[in-house]
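Hi everyone,

Forwarding the result from last night's run.
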Amino acid sequence: MGKLVGIVDFIQNTVEKGASTVEGVHRSLAAKPFEVVRMVKPLDEMVGSVQKVQDQCIGGFYDLARALTHSVGETAKVIATRIEGGAEQQDKERIWK
């Protein structure tokens, strides 16, 4: 692995880990109002349903962000490999897969 590919890999991993960390904080903060409203017992079940939908939306957003980061990172690795002169090796590896 060349320097450029290593840098791309590092950035990709850092962004994906950062997205997971931010997702955890987002979920934690988004849950606070629900915790308060759930203290009103007649609303507990309904609030739980709304919170579940919100959690799915939050998860979907961060899943999409990670998927996009992965795709961009993989594309950048191909470009970096070609820049570093590994186009011939990359073509050979693709043929033998």
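The mean pLDDT is 89.

Cheers,
N.
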